């Protein structure tokens, strides 16, 4: 479990919890639990995604994946334990019952059949097939975007954001999740394994549809620019207080790994 969680990474999802909570003046200490929980869910998903039955990857965050460093059975159990630990932390948090339920509902929905698990199932089913752009976007909205949306939503809930603000920030999170994946697809083509800290060229080797494959590299980069504009437009009404979220959006678009 420590190998999966403490071995580096961007910590994008917990940062989104903190940045969104700060936008609504949430108590910073109260954001720690959802921030940790969302990172544990992300780590569990990577452990299971890397298994031979899934994406079959040997490198993650510049080090051997859990099933390579240990074995497949240990990796499965570690992923299961990380997932349940996330919900254990949320359930035990010293906050109002309404906030606890909101956190749990947001994260459970993002992690299950309506989120990451559903997206991974679509990904496996589409391997070796040419997907339409709309199918590709739907898959990534579930596989990648759902947990990003949950991170933003949990931060907003902690800060007591109004329903209209939650909906506005859902739109930001949706654009961010898609931008993160488009950038991933571009980097998978343009970068080396050493630069990425994971296996480069894997999507092409597994005959998976990607944004560069469907749109061409120029088209994929234009899509990324469009998503950057969308994120900027959503956050513009918040002015300077929204700048931390805006920086995270720019990071997703501009990152080198």
From TrEMBL:
Cofactor(s) needed: Mg(2+)
SUPFAM superfamilies xrefs: Terpenoid synthases
Gene Ontology annotations for the cellular component aspect, listed alphabetically: cytoplasm
Pfam families linked: polyprenyl_synt
GO molecular function: metal ion binding; prenyltransferase activity
Superkingdom, natural source: Bacteria
Gene3D superfamilies per the UniProt record, alphabetical: Farnesyl Diphosphate Synthase
UniProt GO BP: phospholipid biosynthetic process; terpenoid biosynthetic process
Keywords, sorted A to Z: Isoprene biosynthesis, Magnesium, Metal-binding, Transferase
CDD domains: Trans_IPPS_HT
Similarity field: Belongs to the FPP/GGPP synthase family.
NCBIfam families: FPPsyn
Record's protein name: Farnesyl diphosphate synthase
Organism: Xanthomonas hortorum pv. vitians
Chain's gene name: ispA
């Amino acid at each position: 479990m420590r190998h999966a969680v403490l071995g580096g990474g961007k910590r994008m999802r917990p940062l989104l919890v903190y940045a969104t909570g700060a936008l609504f003046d949430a108590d910073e200490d109260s954001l720690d639990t959802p921030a940790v929980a969302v990172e544990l869910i992300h780590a569990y998903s990577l452990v299971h995604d890397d298994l031979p039955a899934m994406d079959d990857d040997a490198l993650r965050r510049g080090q051997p994946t859990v099933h390579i460093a240990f074995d497949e059975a240990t990796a499965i159990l570690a992923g299961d334990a990380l997932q349940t630990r996330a919900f254990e932390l949320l359930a035990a948090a010293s906050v109002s019952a309404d906030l606890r339920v909101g956190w749990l509902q947001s994260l459970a929905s993002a992690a299950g059949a309506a989120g990451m698990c559903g997206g991974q199932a679509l990904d496996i089913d589409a391997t070796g097939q040419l997907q339409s752009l709309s199918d590709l976007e739907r898959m990534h909205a579930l596989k990648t975007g759902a947990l990003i949306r949950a991170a933003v939503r949990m931060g907003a809930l902690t800060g007591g954001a109004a329903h209209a603000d939650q909906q506005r920030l859902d739109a930001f999170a949706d654009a961010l999740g898609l931008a993160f994946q488009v950038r991933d697809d571009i980097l998978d083509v343009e970068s080396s394994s050493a630069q990425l800290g994971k296996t480069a060229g894997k999507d092409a080797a597994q005959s998976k549809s990607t944004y560069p494959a469907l749109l061409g590299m120029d088209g994929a980069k234009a899509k990324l620019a469009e998503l950057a504009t969308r994120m900027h437009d959503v956050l513009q009404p918040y002015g300077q207080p929204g700048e931390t979220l805006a920086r995270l959006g720019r990071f997703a678009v501009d990152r080198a790994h």
